[in-house]
Structure formats: C-alpha cells, structure tokens
Design brief:
alpha+beta, four-stranded antiparallel β-sheet, 3 helices, 24% helix, 34% strand
C-alpha cells in the first residue's frame, strides 16, 4: 500500500497525506441506508451515493454526507473508495451509481 497519497481533481490538489489520514478525514461522513426501491429512485439524485446494491428488502447504499442524510441512515467506517470520492467529487452535484435490476 502507498505510504503517501495526493488526490487531484482537474489538476488541482484536493487532499494530501497518508491512507490512514484519508480514512480519518472521511470518518463520520459515510452512512449506510436501505430503502424500498421506489424511495431510492426518488432520492438517488439528491444523495451522494458511493455504492448501491439491490437486496430483497430494497436498495442498500453507502451515502457520503457531512450530516445524517436520512432518518434511517447509520454511520459506517469509510473505505478508501468512499474517502477518494468525498475529496475529489465534493464540488460536483450528487450522483448515484447505476445498479442492476
């Protein structure tokens, strides 16, 4: 694993430090949430979704937000992918990943 990271977006440095530091900076900004399919479809454009998986009881997703994005959201430990998305896509509009039916 790399000992130092630099995150760039359009040639601009958005974050620099260690992988452990990146995860620490993302802590408290990643949430898990499972919603019925219809509610997910309504909210997905308003939330920053880093991953989504269709399950029997709805869509389980990882959401990036500085505060609780939904009443049912539970904070979870960030992954490096979550942290990367937090610090490189922060200026962009919320997007959701497509999920297979």
């Amino acid at each position: 694993m790399a000992t130092d990271l630099a995150l760039l977006q359009q040639g601009r440095l958005t974050w620099a430090g260690t992988p452990r530091g990146l995860l620490a900076d993302a802590d408290g900004q990643v949430w898990t949430l499972t919603l019925p399919d219809a509610e997910y479809e309504c909210l997905r454009g308003a939330l920053r979704v880093s991953a989504a998986i269709r399950r029997a009881d709805g869509v389980e997703m990882r959401v990036l937000a500085t505060s609780r994005p939904h009443a049912q959201a539970i904070p979870i430990t960030p992954t490096l992918e979550d942290a990367y998305l937090l610090f490189t896509d922060a200026a962009e509009a919320p997007t959701a990943l497509a999920i297979p039916a």
